[in-house]
Amino acid sequence: MSGGIDSTVSAMLLLEQGYEVVGVTFRTYDSIKESCIAKEKGCCTIDSIMEAKHNAERMGFDHHIVDFRDTFRRCVIQNFMDEYMAGHTPNPCVLCNSHIKWGELMRTADEFGCDFIATGHYARIAERDGHVYLRTAADTKKDQTYFLWMLTEEQLRRTIFPLGDYTKDQVREIARQHGYEKLAVKRESQEICFIPNDDYRSFLRANVPDYNERVHAGEYIDKEGKVLGHHEGYVNYTIGQRKGLGIALGHPAYITHIDAEKNQVTLGSNDDLLATELTYRPFGRPLSCSDASSSPILAKVRYRSKAVEISNFQSSIFNNEISSLTFSEPIWGITPGQSVVLYQDNLVVGGGIIL
Question: How far, in Å, are 69, 72, 169, 299 from residue 79 at the CA level?
């Protein structure tokens, strides 16, 4: 329970369905270099922890606060810093869901004698061919399967998504009906939970020990390697970025490539960000589409991007085996460090980290 509307309404629905509910809120970070003080975010601030506890007590079930800070720093924050320092753009929510919200929480559920874990994510679960899969949520605008693709089948078999069949508006109405008017109108944060003011650059500067030795001015180049000017250090930029480049070329320029080793950032046009192929490293079980389905395999490379059909799906690809995908149409802004998630019939059938 985060103290927010989604986890709170999830608990309401579970109680109405007859489940015995135990509430858990976990601490995942400290105020790293004053990074988390006075932020109105959805998870693990003191205010949100206390709000979650209050909501649980109001609904009449036990609530526990568990400390996952060491694991979170080791698995999520350290990866975030390592990836940015390698010139990539990581997605920490994917690792947090896999290692913390399910990995650590599953062990906590065992300690409390709970059969299932339930969260406020907008996703569903479906069975096919004897296996359990993530299924996209009824509210396609809120669907969060892109961030959950790394969950294992074992984890999914013990998971309940109470909000999977509801829209966000319906969830807000349920909160109102139960007397949680303030919660129903509470603004949601879209920021990374441990990054203050959504300023990852300041976070890296404050928390990477050798930041100043590794990050310094470097060259902007074009795709032919011609030097166009100088930038302030490669970690300050992401693929697809247009604003804040500090260079005037007389035409719109976008970040199209980042070379951390050479400290070079390539600039190009919007069209230079279109590609029909990517390489990636899959994780988890072998990719598993259904031979019985005639539906195509679709891929998403960003949370809000359109799913695009791929033409070379290999169901035999295994964990950590580098592979490639070819798309039926160009995709904009393929970014190393982000996830590529594969769907068939609205089921997640695979995923990996873009290289």
Answer: 14, 10, 35, 24
Marked catalytic residue, from 43, 96, 114, 289: 96
| Between 313 and 264, residue with greater pLDDT | 264
Fold for domain 216-268? SH3 type barrels. (2.30.30)
**Hey, what are 180's tokens?**
């949680």
Catalytic site residue from 43, 93, 193, 289: 193
Residue boundaries of the structural domains of the chain: 5-197, 216-268, 274-354
- Give the H/E segment covering residue 32: none
Q: Is 193 a catalytic residue?
A: yes
Residue 43 appears among annotated catalytic residues: no
Go through 69-96 and write b for each residue having 16 or more CB atoms within 10 A of its CB, e for each that does not.
Answer: eeebbebbbebbbebbbebbbbbbbbbb
CATH number at 274-354: 2.40.30.10
- The CATH architecture assigned to 5-197 reads 3-Layer(aba) Sandwich (3.40)
**Contact at 8 Å (CB) between 133 and 349?**
yes
**Per-residue pLDDT reduced to its tens digit, 12-53:** 999 999 999 999 998 887 643 333 333 334 456 788 889 999
What pTM, to 2 d.p., does this model score? 0.91
Q: What is the pLDDT of residue 37?
A: 32
